Amino acid sequence: MLILAGLGNPGPRYAANRHNIGAMAVDAIARRWRFAAERSRFQSLTREGEIPTPAGPAKALILKPQTFYNESGRAVAQALKFFKLTPADLVVFYDEIDLAPGRFRMKNGGGAAGNNGVRSITAHIGPDFRRARLGTGHPGHKDRVQGHVLSDFHKVEHAWVESLLSACAEAAPLLAAGEDEKFQTEVMRLAPAEKSDPKAARRED
Q: Is the domain 2-204 a CATH 3.40.50.1470 member?
């Protein structure tokens, strides 16, 4: 089984925040591949289903931790322990401020780069899990980061957000087959984004 964890904060107040784009991505995957109805498990909202691959259907669990973003590791660790899975069976979707808006990158292992959700997961299961990083851009100064990630996407951003979410869902069979590099390539083919520098604003301050 593959666990697809989408990070975000619980409840309608945060649902459209930039910080919740990871949760939005796994929701899009669940809708595209007609996963079962949502239910509460592992301090999370979960949906079970299958994603087609050349080797046959791959079982997958959508996991949206309801522990608040910075404590995501507690929920993820519970699910991995229950299913007797390893970090290699986990893909975490989350917002990445050091990627320009609409950019997408896969990564396996590494540090948290200041992301408290990733830091929490690493503290509970170690760093060797797969990461799907969805670019949301940097506000230009570290003092504005919290307000940025906890704000909703602007109306003018909705087109690229929807395009990126749809691309993640359409390309999911590659992810389920373990083809992370091909998944990244296909997502960016389906949802191309400008190669702008998210850190440029910081240099201008």
A: yes
CA dihedral 184, 189, 194, 200 (to 10 degrees): 10
Which residues are part of the catalytic machinery? Answer: 19
Q: Fill in the amino acid letter for 161.
A: V
- The model's pLDDT over 28-68, given as tens digits with 9 standing for 90+, comes to 999 999 999 999 999 999 999 999 999 999 999 999 999 99
pTM as predicted? 0.92
Q: Do 61 and 92 contact (CB within 8 A), yes or no?
A: no
Q: Domain limits of the chain? A: 2-204
Q: What is the pLDDT of residues 79-115, one digit of tens each?
A: 999 999 999 999 999 999 999 999 999 999 998 888 9
